Amino acid sequence: MKGSDMAQASPLHEEHVLLGASFSVDGTGVERPVDYAAASADSARLKDGALLADMGGMTSLLVSGHGCGDFVGAAMAGRRLAVGETAFEAALVGDGTVASIPLMARTGTEEFALWDLTPRGETLFAWLSFVIGIGREGFRPYEGVAVEDVSERLVPLCLCGAAAQRVLSDYLRDEERLPEEGRVADVRLDGRIATLVASLRLSGETHCYLVMVPPALARAVWRSLLSFGEVSPAPPSLMTAAIAGCLPWLAPASTLDRLELDAAFLARHGLVREGRDYIGARGLLD
């Protein structure tokens, strides 16, 4: 996890420097670009083009092992996912307060990926690790489940805007297709670059993709995407602000403080399911 005294730089750091980026270090110790001197972008670009942001530093977790479906069903309050589906879901602690609200994807029968767009990723990781260790009288129901921080395995790029689908589709070969909204799929860009692509479910005509790229190829993919005239680089803060209108919970969740969101708000945005069969339900609903 992120815990060093030194700021963590993205594998794309040199690409940001070439674009004249200025940087800041956030509360989790991650260095992020805050603007680009060589290229300007604003949220209006979403309507006629696309924004591309390096979301490096975002917490990425992998939950796997025998029984992980039951574990995720208890630890995550949203709907139960089929393989290939994604959804933003709340993870609640026992008193009903929110640990975090990651994007979760079911990437296999016994495997889930979680990507946290908020700064609450370390809280989420610590809470899920705690739940896995819960036991009584020597019995641990989730003993076969593992949760790993895999944030450094892939570089997360977010491509969002009216042109995003067309731009990414230009890299597809043969019968390959991009995932539909609310789904995740393995996609080979140009038939050779293995990526994991999640299509975020947003309102309106805005297409938004989270493209997970191998670090060794991240610079090549970044440059290639920016070669499209309608694609502009954006700092992650601008990307987050741009999509926050479609994800109303994103702004209140962008804090490291204790987070309380009422049940009606969480239900209205599909972050919790009906019933009380998940951790924190009693504290949230009573």
Automatic annotation (TrEMBL):
<protein>
    <submittedName>
        <fullName>Glycine cleavage T protein (Aminomethyl transferase)</fullName>
    </submittedName>
</protein>
<dbReference type="InterPro" id="IPR027266">
    <property type="entry name" value="TrmE/GcvT-like"/>
</dbReference>
<dbReference type="Pfam" id="PF01571">
    <property type="entry name" value="GCV_T"/>
</dbReference>
<keyword id="KW-0808">Transferase</keyword>
<feature type="domain" description="GCVT N-terminal">
    <location>
        <begin position="12"/>
        <end position="230"/>
    </location>
</feature>
<dbReference type="InterPro" id="IPR006222">
    <property type="entry name" value="GCVT_N"/>
</dbReference>
<dbReference type="GO" id="GO:0016740">
    <property type="term" value="F:transferase activity"/>
</dbReference>
